[in-house]
Amino acid sequence: MKKILTILLAGVSTLASAQHKIDLNRSVDDNGRNLTIRVNGTIDGKAIDYEKTFSVAGLSREEKAEIKEKVFDSLGINVETPAPPRAPRAPRSYQAQQPSGHLSAGVSEGLSSVILSDSELTKDNSAAKAKPFSKEVKFNDQTGELYLRYQFMKGGEEFIYEKTVDASSKSSRQRDSIIKSFENEIELPCK
């Protein structure tokens, strides 16, 4: 048991000592005539403070790169220069789809309803802004309730109106008249 524990402890300590800790700041300045290389930091606890200027007038890019590599190799720095970050993708522009008017009607167990909606697009200086309009009319045959709901934009504000009317003794024409008078009352912009 002691042998296994000793071997395990030796293996863990070997792995811990094999790790390299590198904390470096590298700076390479090239103004065309002079190449200045500065390296500050530590490698495995060993401090490095290096600064030297080379005259590189008339040298090619490849020759300048060789000088940098030789300096880094002489200092024992074999760290690859990280790749520069990639530019983000350009944002995609999506074309606004113009919604079409919608009319649907449904009947379920004595409850009849009509839902109307419409939307308009108006162009502003910068972008198109949607101005929605929706109308919901429900009539319950069993209770005789007429439910009205309107949602629309007016003067840059959103308005929502709801009204429930007892229309049990009203004919279809009278219910239509109630709907039209309510639309006039709320000053519905798009009838």
Fold and architecture overview:
The chain has helices at residues 2-18, 61-74, 172-185; strands spanning 22-30, 34-43, 46-55, 102-108, 111-123, 128-140, 145-154, 157-166. It is of the alpha+beta class and 191 residues long. The chain folds into two domains: 20-74, no CATH class; 102-185, no CATH class. The strands form two sheets. It has a five-stranded antiparallel sheet, with no helix packed on it. This is Lipoprotein-associated type-17 domain-containing protein.
What are the main properties of this structure?
3 helices; 3-stranded antiparallel sheet; 5-stranded antiparallel sheet; about 25% helix; about 190 residues
Quick synopsis:
The protein has 191 residues and is an alpha+beta fold.
Strands, helices and their partners?
Blueprint lengths: L1 H17 L3 E9 L3 E10 L2 E10 L5 H14 L27 E7 L2 E13 L4 E13 L4 E10 L2 E10 L5 H14 L6
Antiparallel strand pairs: 1-2, 2-3, 4-5, 5-6, 6-7, 7-8
Say how many strands there are.
Answer: 8
The gross shape turns out to be: elongated
Distance between the termini: 90 Å
Rg, rounded, reads 39 Å
Strand order in the sheet with the most strands: 4-5-6-7-8
Q: What's the story with the biggest beta sheet?
A: 5 strands, antiparallel
Helix content: 10-25%
Strand content: 35-45%
Which segments are poorly predicted (pLDDT under 50) over 5 or more consecutive residues? 96-112, 117-130
- Give the mean pLDDT: 74
The string of secondary-structure elements, in order, is HEEEHEEEEEH
Q: What number of structural domains do the residues give? A: 2
Number of helical regions:
3
- Global structural class: alpha+beta
